[in-house]
Amino acid sequence: MDLFGDSDSEDENVSVGPSQETLKIIAEKQKSTEKTAEEQEVHFPTPIPLPALWPEPLFQGPVVFNDDSEEFGGGRSFVAQVDLPPGTLLMKELPLSTWPSEAIGKALSVDVLKSVPNLGLLDNLFPYKLSDVPASVVEERRSSMDAELKHLSSEISVPADDLLRYYFTLTCNGFDSGVYGHLSIFNHSELPNCIKFSPTDGVPYSEVRTVKHVKKGDHLTISYMNPREQSFARRRKYFLDQHNFDIADEIRGLSTVQKFDSTTRSAEEVENTEKTIDEFTKMYEEFKAVNDEAGKASVEFASEIKEKLSLKCRDLYAASLQLVSTVLSMFPSHVILLRCLRLHTNLCALMLDLASTSRNVLIDEMEGINILSDFVENTGKLLDLQVEYHEGDTHPDVGATVLDLAEGINGMLGKAPGRLFDLKVYRLESIVASSKYESELRATHRRIEKMFK
Q: Known Gene3D superfamilies for this protein (predicted)?
């Protein structure tokens, strides 16, 4: 189902120091404007009541419901009631309906409507009537799903055209974690100022928080893409298929991290590379799941599993290393480089975990140091790109990466400090500089972590 998502220190205000000059400027601006957690305690005015369309959200922050703008989806949106710092909690909400397990990962079918406990709850979600959807799209879906619509209509005594509208309502408003009322009012942006967190084990609700400084009156937006870092062609197809509108050609440049396109590669080459990243990512997730399960088994059985797994991971690691080299040369500023680097550094971490937790170690000390060195170098590249892509160092993705880089530097300082100086990573020119940079990275992680607690 192609639905969208989805400690204290005196150095708390130290910003990440990327290697590119443009990123240094961003980091310096961020450093001068960031506030500590205590300074961020703003006394917000009482939130304006939301329309009584669905059950009230569990929490509503300083947001204003706006229903007079034709510029945003369905003519409705949320805007900031006051100036908001990064990390501000805007809303918590339980889903109106979750997806049946058999529907996850598959194309949305009409039958999924049977999982919605009260179809009437969808009446206030866009589209409000079939005429809100392009006529050609309505006719195409009506024709292709005619038998399913008639069967379900007979089964639950709801007119077929009403079911078709409800179907479009789910495609337009469904998140990967379910269908929400108030959270669906947050509109999509290619440069969102908020992020939606999905429910986790023990936390049944979703929440939305700011990831940037937002001015009073600004529209509050999230990204419907998951993962967000995809090519223009993929984003365009997604919105045509799922939301029935065509994104403007002028945002094509947002396929690049930088403000210009430094590659002349064809769309076919980009798509083929994305497919490879998709394939490798699926394999990595399967391997990680096996490793996680092995951690719950007996020591001897776990060691046997990890020994076999390390052979498969070694092949995938080598392939991803080659992929990173290819993408760096072919698409040096394309957003898919972010996904590629994240995949590769995740594989590095998995390989290192296998080496440290398996009794029958198949990764010797020198190979482990090489992998750790590779991890530090590519995590540094990923951090540089993330800071630029997210326009600062206040995004949770940046927080995760700075911690990874700090852990990697710490590992290299303990095992092979001399190798650090050969890496093309900002501020690793000496042991003292590396130790100081590690400390600053950890402080940055704590600062970002506080924002989202």
A: SET domain
